[in-house]
Design a protein that fits this description.
Elements lengths: L6 E6 L3 E2 L12 H13 L5 E5 L5 E5 L1 H10 L3 E6 L4 H13 L6 H18 L16 H9 L3 H9 L3
Parallel strand pairs: 2-4, 3-5
Antiparallel strand pairs: 1-5, 3-4
Helix pairs in contact: 1-2, 3-4, 4-6, 5-6
Length: 163
């Protein structure tokens, strides 16, 4: 599979594992039941994003609420965009896609920022001894702050909530 090419497939809900340590809550609230009704009447507008795992199953990257809505609607398969992603690439995609939501709890934001910062730090690590160190981590918290529109200090405060 081409790493940069998306492949949309109908995948059984049973084959999709939730993302470990997913920081966003999926609630069976009024909004969820509205999503269920929308899916029943109009179908799914945006496919979920999954990454293939070595055991032949998939890991949910983006679309935990949509998956739950399909479960509640009694629909066994969901349209999914299958994309080859490393664990860190999946974390970055998952956090980015969910930070755009209107309602995010401070605790959800805190864990999301922490996961994203850790992934960014891992991606900045040297993998060989011949490369020159890039301005070591260029303060990844500053990069994250710029990307999400929060101050570096606010990012630090959010992450402290996770301790």
């Amino acid at each position: 599979m081409d790493k940069n090419k998306d492949d949309i497939q109908e995948i059984s809900l049973e084959q999709i594992n939730n993302f470990p340590s997913h920081p966003y809550k999926v609630k069976d609230d009024e909004s969820m039941f509205e999503l269920v009704e929308s899916i029943k009447t109009r179908g799914l507008i945006q496919p979920v994003l999954v990454r293939p795992l070595d055991d032949g199953t998939y890991e949910m990257v983006s679309g935990h609420r949509r998956k739950r809505a399909f479960e509640l609607a009694g629909i066994e398969k969901i349209p999914a965009r299958v994309k080859e992603l490393t664990r860190d690439e999946a974390i970055l995609s998952m956090v980015d896609s969910n930070l755009q939501r209107d309602e995010i709890l401070p605790s959800e934001k805190a864990y999301a920022f922490k996961m994203r910062l850790e992934a960014m730090n891992r991606q900045g690590m040297r993998t060989d001894r011949t490369s020159t160190p890039v301005e070591s981590k260029f303060r990844t918290n500053e990069l994250l702050a710029d990307e999400v529109g929060e101050s570096r200090e606010q990012i630090r405060r959010y992450i402290r909530l996770t301790n």
